[in-house]
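Quick question, first post here. What does this chain look like in 3D?
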Amino acid sequence: MTKSEAKTLSEGQRAYEARRAAKAGMSLERWLDSKQRQQEEAEEARRKAAEPPKPAKPPGLLARLIERAHKPL
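> Answer (accepted):
Ran it through. C-alpha coordinates below.
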Protein backbone atom coordinates (compact mmCIF):
# COMPACT_ATOMS: atom_id res chain seq x y z
CA MET A 1 0.00 0.00 0.00
CA THR A 2 1.31 3.40 -0.81
CA LYS A 3 1.15 6.19 1.69
CA SER A 4 -1.95 7.61 0.03
CA GLU A 5 -3.63 4.21 0.20
CA ALA A 6 -2.70 3.85 3.86
CA LYS A 7 -4.58 7.05 4.61
CA THR A 8 -7.66 5.77 2.78
CA LEU A 9 -7.99 2.66 4.94
CA SER A 10 -11.24 2.48 6.82
CA GLU A 11 -11.12 2.31 10.61
CA GLY A 12 -11.81 -1.42 10.56
CA GLN A 13 -9.09 -2.11 8.00
CA ARG A 14 -6.65 0.06 9.90
CA ALA A 15 -7.41 -1.77 13.17
CA TYR A 16 -7.00 -5.15 11.46
CA GLU A 17 -3.64 -4.15 9.98
CA ALA A 18 -2.55 -2.72 13.35
CA ARG A 19 -3.33 -6.06 15.05
CA ARG A 20 -1.35 -7.95 12.39
CA ALA A 21 1.56 -5.50 12.77
CA ALA A 22 1.53 -5.91 16.56
CA LYS A 23 1.52 -9.67 16.18
CA ALA A 24 4.57 -9.41 13.89
CA GLY A 25 6.25 -7.01 16.33
CA MET A 26 6.28 -4.04 13.93
CA SER A 27 4.80 -0.58 13.81
CA LEU A 28 1.80 -0.04 11.56
CA GLU A 29 3.76 2.08 9.04
CA ARG A 30 6.60 -0.45 8.89
CA TRP A 31 4.06 -3.25 8.45
CA LEU A 32 2.31 -1.45 5.59
CA ASP A 33 5.67 -0.70 3.93
CA SER A 34 6.75 -4.35 4.12
CA LYS A 35 3.37 -5.43 2.79
CA GLN A 36 3.76 -3.02 -0.16
CA ARG A 37 7.28 -4.32 -0.86
CA GLN A 38 6.03 -7.91 -0.90
CA GLN A 39 3.28 -7.00 -3.36
CA GLU A 40 5.78 -5.27 -5.63
CA GLU A 41 8.14 -8.27 -5.51
CA ALA A 42 5.29 -10.64 -6.36
CA GLU A 43 4.26 -8.41 -9.27
CA GLU A 44 7.86 -8.31 -10.53
CA ALA A 45 8.09 -12.12 -10.30
CA ARG A 46 4.84 -12.47 -12.27
CA ARG A 47 6.16 -10.06 -14.90
CA LYS A 48 9.42 -12.02 -15.22
CA ALA A 49 7.53 -15.31 -15.49
CA ALA A 50 5.36 -13.89 -18.28
CA GLU A 51 8.37 -12.85 -20.40
CA PRO A 52 9.16 -15.26 -23.25
CA PRO A 53 12.38 -17.22 -22.74
CA LYS A 54 15.45 -15.93 -24.53
CA PRO A 55 16.52 -17.95 -27.59
CA ALA A 56 19.27 -20.50 -27.04
CA LYS A 57 22.76 -19.39 -27.93
CA PRO A 58 24.50 -21.23 -30.78
CA PRO A 59 27.28 -23.58 -29.63
CA GLY A 60 30.66 -21.95 -29.03
CA LEU A 61 33.94 -22.79 -30.71
CA LEU A 62 34.99 -25.48 -28.23
CA ALA A 63 31.57 -27.15 -28.28
CA ARG A 64 31.65 -27.30 -32.09
CA LEU A 65 35.18 -28.73 -32.09
CA ILE A 66 34.30 -31.40 -29.52
CA GLU A 67 31.16 -32.32 -31.46
CA ARG A 68 33.21 -32.60 -34.63
CA ALA A 69 35.82 -34.78 -32.87
CA HIS A 70 33.13 -37.24 -31.76
CA LYS A 71 31.85 -37.80 -35.32
CA PRO A 72 33.36 -40.76 -37.17
CA LEU A 73 35.48 -40.03 -40.21
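Residues 3-70 form one domain.
The chain has a mean pLDDT of 88.
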